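go over whats below:
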Amino acid sequence: MPFIDLTGNHVIAVGGGVRVASDWAMYGRRSIYFDGAGSYLSIAPSSLLSFGTDVDFTIEGVCKPTGFPHEYHTLIANRSAVPYNAGDRFVMIYGPTAPAVLEQNRLGAGGFGIGDQGPINLVQTYVRSSDLIQPGSACQWALTRSTVDGISTYRLFLGGFLVGSYVMAGVAMDFGAGGTYIGWTPWDDGTAGGGWLGFFKGYQEYIRVTRACRYTASYTPAEPKTGAADPFWSSTVLFLGVSDIGPHDDLLRRLLPPLAVDRNGTAIASELTAYGAALDAAATSADALLAEADPRTTSALLPDWERNYGLDGGGNTDTVRRSALVAQILAGGGQSRAFYVQLAAALGYTATVIEYTPHTVMSDVTYPLYAGYWRYIWKVRAHALAGAVSAAAFEALIRKIKPAHTQVVFEYY
């Protein structure tokens, strides 16, 4: 896998079209490119990336956004819940269409449920940069927290300059809660904000997380070190970068005979770049298949999964569609009321099942005049909760697995 954690603490999972890029890097030869339309990297939930209310930390990286297609463009975030709730924490670049004018084109660190300690009650962003960020501009950024006697100071740096700070107390910063995501804010999946999405578009060369405060004042940026060359290495819990193996154009170049071929010639370099790009893409796709093989994380192959299980996405978000898919796969089958109530709950609905009995001479005079065929009709009375699949998808699945000799009708409230 080309994307690795140099500390060895975490396994990096690939989502969407994220790839190794050789056309930009501030310090090395390669970086990670996010297409802004569904690509991200993720890490399983980890206590190493959760800092509670008083653990000093530094989260930093180098990036070069190539566009701002959304309101929010995430560098790193956790996945506390979908949609957002009080546990969410993130560092992102706000786009020019972000709702808050003071946040537009700025780097910010934020979270929900901070309370009235934030600059605005329940505000997203507790510290933002004074400097603007434009597409195509490379920036080295850092967020730090230092805590003394229970009082925490948060500092934001761009290019080594201190560009924002804020003081709060007793606020948990658990970037490992629910998993850590690079390039995406997964709590903002479009269901709660009209398609904000939060995908980052551009390059990120590395993300480094340290359980210590590296910077308290402006500093001179430098190429990040590892091992003994870094005085904070023992406290470093994540160093996300690109593996030293590859890219493939470099591997192909090394295979050329040293005397018979000019390895650095212009013509051969063009060919190796083309062949290497194809092999890089194949390697990245192979890594992505790990996520695509799991219905809980699939993205590119989601329509194929749905086709195999007789589902229709119905215009829902990928998160909702995956929930419906998993519910279909796990449905063991049944004909009881409880089975269909549980299935409705898995799809995001509170439901009751109503069955009918034909009217007979023994029925009460107030009982409806149901004919004999009503014994084969039953009703699902349902109420959609937040994040539920569409009514069309809900009904299609119920009809697909209902007893064949019956008809089902739906009522919503």
